[in-house]
Design goal:
- The chain is an alpha+beta fold.
- The chain has three domains: 134 residues, Periplasmic binding protein-like II (D-Maltodextrin-Binding Protein, domain 2); 123 residues, Dipeptide-binding Protein, Domain 1 (Dipeptide-binding Protein, domain 1), CATH 3.90.76; 230 residues, Dipeptide-binding Protein, domain 3 (Roll), CATH 3.10.105.
- Helices cover 31% and strands 20% of the residues.
- It has a five-stranded mixed beta sheet, covered by helices on one side. The protein has a five-stranded mixed beta sheet with strand order 16-15-17-12-18. A four-stranded antiparallel beta sheet has the order 4-5-7-6.
- Helix 11 packs antiparallel against helix 13 and helix 17 runs antiparallel to helix 18.
- The longest helix is centred in the first third of the chain and has 25 residues.
- The radius of gyration is 26 Å and the shape is globular.
């Protein structure tokens, strides 16, 4: 071979290699996402935490969910059972009430990451564990309402529920567990929450059947996912997704600008005020979306605290807050003040709900009538000498919430109330403090909900977590009102949406009167998409964007 020809071949090889390298760069087969919280557990059914949902919805799927257009759809199942299509049938129960039998079929190719098929045996085990009061499942009440499950075959089952509810075919919170791995961990139900394979062996591929599986974890810092070769849906684009936890939101921005992360999750990323500032400075480099939704930022009371047991004190605390000023100054008016637990974006919202305007004089009168009328050094006391003082907790490192805390502290101080701020890492706050109702003061966090979501686990009196029920349920305030229980039950079994509306209106009014929690505002989420990242569609409700991660792609601009 001549020297000239050899040189030509070398340059050609370099050119081809360069082309391949360029293609590989623009293929972007790795995506690094920044979020602000680390999951307290990876078991999908124990406690409720957005960070967990964000990660796990890449690796698991509920049986049904609401999609980006707020329609109920199947994910693990193949067809949504309805009375109209014959897959759901009302049935008369032995006590004369009307129940419902709904038949679901698991996708025939659904397979755990270790090659074990997802079957009705997994559904039966999940139901068995979920309804056990010592297992610690957040949705205990929902599992208990399933009377029996008939197995049709390995993939098909009929679920018999104890009532025909308006959402009879929704299994949004039913995450099927792998019975071949989890049954041994469930031998002692009271210890299950501490022995689940999702925490003792979280990279076991048999735990996941979604488009991705978790392959590596650095506790508190990072979760790494790679494609599940047994996934039954469209192949995901990214060959590796890294979820990097950066609890400080200022550091999150710095990591994005440095290229250490590609994308900040809208659900768990920039606070709204930080997003507005970032958009002014760097917005031209991103595709920006502000998604308003059903995300309710609020303050939970602990109603076991004698201070809060008096409804007049709870009402006074809300009258003492200028929430309009708070959202305008901190969030540029992008997050509307909440007047109940239901967003105006939801079709069930009632415009007749009572509104607490900023009225410090009214707050003072209520506190006086509740016995907190003696002032010492600017702080109210009662006749027994008790000080009107309590802790205010939230997730540490969240700049937005810390700013809100300071405003609340200042406004309450103006009417003689002392607030002591004490925060915890999210995994501790949600994993222990909230679950076990350990904070005797106020706790600030957000509830995410689906459209027309029944507050069964959050407001019904039989869903108060306690040691006796394995800390199941999500009624963290300890709220118990028979009328609220009756309204929840009445709404659930009313199939006519027009007849449900007045019941929803009464529920919202009762909530606004009783105030088991203090409404603050409905959050908007700020999404700053790299211009090459396509297919991410914010939902505005509790289903995270990662529920459809297989639709995400990277495209050259």
């Amino acid at each position: 071979m001549s020297k000239k020809k050899l040189i030509t071949l070398i340059f050609l090889a370099i050119f081809i290699a360069g082309c391949n390298f360029t293609d590989k760069v623009w293929a972007r087969d790795q995506l690094v996402i920044g979020i602000t919280q680390f999951p307290a557990t990876l078991n999908p059914n124990i406690n409720s935490m957005l960070a967990k949902s964000y990660v796990l919805n890449m690796a698991l799927r509920p049986i049904t969910t609401y999609d980006q257009d707020w329609n109920l759809v199947c994910l693990l199942c193949t067809a949504l059972p309805t009375i109209e299509n014959g897959l759901a049938e009302p049935e008369t129960l032995p006590d004369g009430r009307t129940g419902v039998a709904a038949t679901y079929t698991i996708h025939r190719d659904a397979t755990w990451g270790d090659g074990t098929p997802v079957t009705t045996a997994d559904v039966l085990f999940t139901w068995e564990a979920g309804r056990h009061e010592q297992a610690g499942f957040a949705g205990l009440e929902g599992y208990k309402r399933i009377l029996t499950i008939d197995v049709v075959d390995d993939k098909t089952f009929t679920l018999h529920s104890d009532r025909l509810s308006y959402n009879y075919n929704s299994l949004n919170n039913f995450y099927v567990l792998p019975s071949h791995l989890e049954r041994s961990a469930f031998k002692q139900p009271s210890e299950y929450r501490y022995r689940t394979t999702y925490d003792t062996d979280p990279t076991n591929p048999g735990l996941y059947f979604g488009p991705y599986q978790i392959v590596d974890i650095e506790s508190g810092a990072e979760v790494v996912l790679e494609p599940n070769l047994h996934w039954y849906g469209p192949s995901p684009h990214f060959q590796r997704i890294v979820i990097r936890v950066i609890e400080n939101t200022a550091a999150l921005e710095a990591n994005l600008l440095s290229g250490a992360i590609d994308y900040v999750a809208g659900e768990l990323g920039f606070t709204i005020e930080q997003a507005l500032s970032f958009e002014r400075r760097k917005g031209d480099n991103y595709n920006v979306i502000y998604k308003a939704g059903l995300i309710y930022e609020h303050l939970d009371f602990n109603l076991d605290n004698p201070i809060f047991a008096d409804r007049r004190v709870r009402q006074a605390l809300l009258y003492a807050l200028d929430r309009n000023q708070l959202v305008e100054q901190l969030f540029g008016g992008q997050q509307p003040v909440a007047h109940s637990n239901v967003s105006p974006l939801d079709q069930i919202y009632s415009e007749k709900v009572g509104i607490y305007t900023f009225a410090p004089d009214k707050a003072a009168d209520l506190l006086d009538s509740a016995g907190w009328s003696i002032m010492h050094n600017g702080i109210r006391h009662n006749s027994a000498g008790d000080r009107l003082s309590f802790t205010l907790m939230t997730t540490a490192g969240n700049k937005s919430r810390e700013l809100v805390q300071q405003v609340l502290q200042s406004q309450w101080r103006a009417v003689g109330i002392e607030v002591l701020i004490r925060n915890e890492p999210a995994r501790v706050f949600f994993g222990e403090t909230m679950t076990k109702r350990a904070n005797q003061g106020l706790s600030m966090y957000a509830w995410l909900s689906a459209p027309e979501s029944l507050p069964l686990t959050t407001l019904r009196s039989d869903n108060i977590p306690s040691a006796s029920n394995g800390w199941s349920g999500q009624n963290y305030p300890g709220y118990a009102n028979p009328r609220m229980d009756d309204l929840i039950d009445a709404i659930e079994i009313e199939l006519d949406p027009n007849k449900r509306l007045p019941l929803w209106a009464e529920l919202q009014q009762l909530y606004a009167t009783d105030l088991p929690a203090l409404p603050l505002f409905f959050r908007a989420e700020a999404y700053f998409f790299p211009k090459w990242l396509k297919g991410v569609r914010p939902t505005g409700h509790m289903s995270t964007t990662t529920t459809w991660v297989e639709e995400w792609t990277a495209e050259k601009e």
